[in-house]
Amino acid sequence: MTETTSPQSASAAPALDGGDTPLRVAVIVGSNREGRFGPIVAEWLLAHVRERSDFVVDVVDLAESELPTSLSFSPSAAASAELAKVTPKLAAADAFIVLTPEYNHSYPASLKALIDWHKDEWEAKPVAFVSYGGLSGGLRAVEHLRPVFAELHTVTIRDTVSFHNAGALFDVEGNHRDPSAADAAAKGMLDQLAWWGWALRGAKSVRPYGS
Ligand SMILES: Cc1cc2nc3c(=O)[nH]c(=O)nc-3n(C[C@H](O)[C@H](O)[C@H](O)COP(=O)(O)O)c2cc1C
């Protein structure tokens, strides 16, 4: 069967996004553990994001800030200084990729602190996940993050990239030993993130979220 689109219906489609500016995606490196493996996976992910023209990327590395676990409506000067390292990047983002390890069948406390210190910065934006860990590849961490991000009015992306027994998958230089399946998974996840990023940014340009 041949599918046809009339010129009339194509030209009638609304240009919701109002431009072709790339989506600003914040890659959140969730582990801040001493001796962490996270940067290896982060570099692999960043290489995939940076080769695309539909994204520009910011990195939010939780090892580079010390967010308190005690929340406050009037944070101390020290807490404000730490928040200033991350909050503007979250606010500016059109989309997020959360890179999470699995700790005790869930995600690390560093990520929960980042999430809970913020609210509006997450709203009506898409969130994708890349996970790693032992046998489960961090998938339980991702499934725990989905309802948390739903509470914050985000859209979580269905397809994830996960690395089971992550340490064995990369060589000493940080290259994936057998990258074809992971590369394909990254493309699928990033394509879905871009779709939702454009859709939500375009919709918000026409009508504020929740109005
Ligand atoms: C406190 C702790 C708990 C862990 N719990 C799990 C777990 O429940 N399931 C799993 O597959 N791996 C688990 N692991 C293995 C980690 O997912 C793996 O070591 C990963 O590389 C940690 O990420 P990081 O090195 O970037 O901190 C755990 C590791 C730590 C340190």
Automatic annotation (TrEMBL):
Domain NADPH-dependent FMN reductase-like: 24-166
Cellular component, GO annotation: cytosol
Signal sequence annotation: none
Record GO terms (molecular function): FMN binding; oxidoreductase activity
SUPFAM superfamilies: Flavoproteins
Name of the featured protein: NADPH-dependent oxidoreductase
Organism annotation: Streptomyces alboniger
